[in-house]
Backbone:
């Protein structure tokens, strides 16, 4: 007897699942993050995890995205051999229809981040479709779906290597993780695929990230297989690196290590590592022909009660009257609460600014960076009485190639983003006596609450990459690179690596 799966049930289930994961962290992930928070002894890392946990609870309550980067959709569809479809669309087309509905839902619109013509004009598809869909035919009479929304900051840190058969995988991971920087928003999970061929290893790495966090159960009972022993080895090695939450130095860099493997050629050992960030978003459901999937919301009491306290050493800054002399008193690692006007800009805006400056045309009317701060962000559209949707930072490293231009030619005083800056950029910041501030990646809804006014001032056609002017009140940031060039992403992990080794 075959099961009939209706088109509408499948599409509705995809839509519901994507809405669900946009604001609900998996409970196992929250439990692991809270446990790491309680153990953490690094003040900067503990502060970052507090913001991530508070943001998670706020998103669950407000049903708004955990992160402004609402991701590229990856969908694993396992179809029972006895399933029949009541549909005039392919599985890919049905997934894409569900994605389009989910991302344009008026109650909780999600950010459209997908661009077509990736090697050319990179034009936004406007509905976040198409998704990346992996289809397997399996035994049975049901359809199993595992769906995730993966942010670009963590996806961009994926690593692939063809090792020799005798090479040590854990050693390669230990050596590679520090090269990934903090753009993947640790603490999160690392998914590792081993064997098969290059593309098989990559798919296994991604699928492994769909599993629940259970490393502590494995530690308690001990490893029984090669993969389990490797998970424990890599977990210990990664956390001894001292990278910590947001790369600021601390005890927890990874919350779990996931591994899937497949037989491979005798001459080969393909390994792919894909990180999942602090906005880990995935859910599983089954369809048996009885209707769309029913996803049970978690209970709010599942979230820990965390408060974020403003310490005595916190500085406050009025960005409307800020001076070079004032920012030179800020030191790497300081917490600052920002109030006043800031401008935004990401990759596409920077590239367009570069063209305008090179042509002699100059900046658009209404855009003046002189004495101002720029925030690297692409916000979610607002709903209801919001002035802006979730608006957490994007990875600053991508803007490194534009930084000298911005500091030298526009009078820009400082930058706000997430993750580390390269050596040339740190040197440029020091030369211009500027400053780089870090907001917490994975705390987008919390950050958005500090934004009291928002308007587009240039490049409206770029959508979420347009230049906005934000009015902020007490927006929390950490000084990552101060005007002397002292870099928290170097000093923090270095200090904690020594502490953890000791």
Residues:
């Amino acid at each position: 007897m075959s099961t009939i799966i209706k088109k509408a049930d499948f599409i509705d289930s995809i839509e519901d699942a994507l809405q669900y994961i946009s604001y609900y962290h998996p409970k196992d992930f929250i439990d692991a993050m809270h446990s790491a928070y309680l153990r953490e002894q690094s003040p900067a890392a503990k502060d970052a995890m507090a913001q991530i946990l508070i943001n998670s609870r706020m998103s669950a309550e407000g049903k708004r995205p955990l992160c402004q980067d609402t991701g590229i959709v990856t969908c694993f569809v396992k179809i029972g051999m006895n399933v029949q479809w009541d549909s005039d669309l392919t599985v890919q087309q049905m997934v894409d229809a569900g994605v389009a509905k989910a991302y344009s839902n008026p109650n909780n619109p999600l950010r459209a981040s997908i661009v077509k013509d990736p090697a050319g004009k990179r034009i936004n598809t406007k509905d976040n479709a198409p998704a990346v869909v992996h289809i397997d035919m399996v035994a049975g009479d049901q359809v199993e779906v595992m769906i995730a929304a993966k942010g670009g900051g963590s996806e961009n840190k994926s690593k692939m290597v063809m090792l020799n058969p005798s090479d040590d995988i854990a050693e390669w991971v230990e050596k590679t993780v520090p090269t990934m920087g903090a753009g993947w928003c640790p603490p999160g999970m690392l998914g590792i695929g081993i064997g098969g061929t290059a593309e098989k290893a990559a798919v296994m790495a991604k699928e492994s990230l769909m599993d629940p966090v259970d490393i502590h159960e494995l530690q308690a009972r001990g490893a029984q297989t090669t993969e389990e022993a490797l998970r424990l080895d890599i977990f210990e090695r990664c956390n001894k690196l001292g990278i910590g939450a947001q790369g600021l130095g601390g005890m927890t860099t990874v919350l779990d290590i996931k591994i899937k493997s497949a037989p491979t050629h005798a001459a080969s050992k393909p390994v792919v590592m894909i990180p999942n960030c602090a906005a880990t978003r995935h859910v599983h459901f089954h369809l048996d022909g009885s209707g769309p999937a029913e996803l049970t919301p978690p209970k709010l009491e599942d979230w820990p009660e965390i408060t974020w306290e403003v310490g005595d050493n916190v500085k406050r800054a009025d960005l409307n009257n800020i001076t070079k002399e004032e920012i030179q008193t800020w030191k790497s690692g300081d917490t600052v609460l920002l109030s006043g006007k800031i401008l935004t800009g990401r990759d596409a805006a920077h590239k367009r600014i570069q063209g305008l400056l090179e042509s002699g045309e100059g900046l658009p009317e209404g855009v003046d960076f002189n004495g101002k701060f720029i925030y690297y962000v692409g916000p979610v559209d607002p709903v209801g009485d919001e002035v802006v949707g979730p608006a957490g930072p994007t990875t600053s490293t991508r803007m490194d190639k534009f930084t000298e231009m911005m500091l030298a030619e526009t009078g820009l005083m400082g930058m706000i983003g997430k993750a580390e800056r390269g050596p040339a950029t740190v040197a440029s910041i020091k030369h211009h006596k500027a400053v780089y501030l870090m907001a917490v990646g994975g705390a987008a809804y919390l950050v958005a609450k500090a934004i009291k006014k928002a308007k587009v001032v240039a490049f409206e056609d770029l959508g979420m990459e347009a230049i906005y002017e934000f009015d902020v009140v007490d927006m929390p940031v950490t000084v990552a690179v101060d005007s002397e060039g002292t870099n928290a992403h170097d000093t923090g992990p270095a200090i904690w690596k020594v502490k953890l080794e000791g």
